[in-house]
Amino acid sequence: MIENKPLTSAGLAEAISNLIKTYPFIDLTIFGTSRLGRPLYALTIGHGPREIMINATHHANEWITSLILMRFLEECAGSYESQAALWDKITLHCIPLVNPDGVDLVENEPGWKANACGVDLNSNYPAGWDLAKAFKFAKGYTVPGPRDYVGLKPLSEPESCAMAAYTQINDFALTLSLHTQGEEIYWRYMNFDPPGAEEMAKKFAEVSGYRLEDVPDESSHAGYRDWFIATFNRPGFTIECGFGENPLPVSQLDDIYKKTSPILREALYHRSGTLDFKFRH
Predict the structure, then answer these.
(1) Cα distance between residue 100 and residue 102, in whole Å
(2) Is 43 left (phi over 0), alpha (psi -120 to 50) or beta?
(3) Which tens digits make up the pLDDT trace of 100-113?
(4) Which one from 198, 206, 240, 266 is the annotated catalytic residue?
(5) For 45-100, how does the pLDDT look when each residue is reduced to its tens digit (9 = 90+)?
(6) By CB distance 3.0 to 4.6 Å, which of 13, 32, 145, 167 could disulfide with 40?
């Protein structure tokens, strides 16, 4: 069971180790390292041709999303044998902690979003990076700091670079990026209209009660979701979990999970041809 307590990179490593001991069919890959050399983990379950990726904690003070994703993976693993028909159709990739260095800074600096070099990892992807830079610079985020600095160039950071490489070597049908907060779903990027994306977004909203929204212009470029949509013209979603001021307190985890997990389940069986499966709760 994933513990309800604030996340550290060491705590995640221990949780991953315990999860794999319990469910040895989960595959673990270290697909890169952070700026300070901490491992970036990808955990996969299933062996089907439809590949789905969910990532969490691009922003350090949104670490509660890592707990959401790890809990969901544990839920999937607990239902692995009983839902063999589903896992014959899909492969789920979970990247629970994109920003391990930043997470370890949050304990002493709660407002910290960036990585160890003061770069906002979710403003460091190539899609519209120059536009993001102009917006952020106009607001005064011109140098490394706790938030909103876009870096010297797209993919300047080892974390974002590793995420892009991992995406390019896999064949993801869709991706979900977990963030906080606002109980909103972002699915559109500029004039891209990936097949099935709007239909899927509406279904996510229906099962969760979250609102479909367009990203404000000043935040709508250089994110992972933006880059995935622009590069592959496939559905990519940002799920803004919970309400409040980041970092959200761990006391909200159960409520956030209750509202968010239906989105994650829907992502698995949408178009999978296995519409009657049920997870073990």
Answers:
(1) 5
(2) beta
(3) 999 999 988 999 99
(4) 240
(5) 999 999 999 999 999 999 999 999 999 999 999 999 999 999 999 999 999 999 99
(6) 32
